[in-house]
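Sample pair:
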Amino acid sequence: MKRALPVLTVLCGLVVIWYLAAVWMNSTWVYDQAGRAGTTVSFGEMVPQTMNQDRPLLPPPHQVGVELWKGLFGQAVTSKRSLVYHGFVTFKGTMMGFGLGIAFGVLLAMSIVRFRVMDMSVMPWAIISQTVPIVALAPMIITLSSQLGLEGRDLPKAIIAAYLSFFPVLVSMVKGLRSPDQMQLDLLKTYGAGEGATFLKLRLPASMPYFFASLKVAVAASLVGTIVGELPTGAIEGLGARMLIGSQFGEPLIMWSALFAAAILAGLLIVAVGVAERIARRRMGAV
């Protein structure tokens, strides 16, 4: 309870601020309607009318909650209006990009630690790559995929997700693989251990805390990359597509419910990474 109290306090504060902002932003429509009708609206009459508008500028929390509930539990999971359906589409792209990002990041980190020339030549370019805005890069990847004859939207989304997720894995794994000190390395040399044995017995176990910490960042970045990849593809499936549809058709409740569904999905993925970390640590004999 002591750990949860600060979080709940901040959450309550955010909800209060959200309600106040909703009253302020949605009051414009109420006063405009009253002005057109030639009537006046008091503050006490205005506030309730800002809470249940069909197309509010800023939906209050309870409206978003109702729309989110309807999207998650009020539809069949196979329905195109179900957030579970669209969430699964986004989940597939996220996992594909996450897997590619892990593989590329780990292999590149191993090369950088093993070969000094890779450290001097590749690492600066890996850092520079993260300065390119993903919203500018995504249409280029999609166009290039089409020119290469790659059908479907899954692969371009996975590439975009991998682009965002590989970097935290790369940086953390380089740090983790280099974390053993010289005394530990010299000890293994006295036992006659080669580079392969040193990697498996010392460097790899020492890098695991760094690796799993990076996965929590990478999986969230992969989800963001997948959603961004759904926006310029003209996709009609996925949480990113739902956000785009809500924006284009002036349906803010659809957009906000998809946004919160994405946040819930990100939270579940991070929890899953935490569970995998505890299982791995237990199997490795760590406390």
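The chain has a mean pLDDT of 88.
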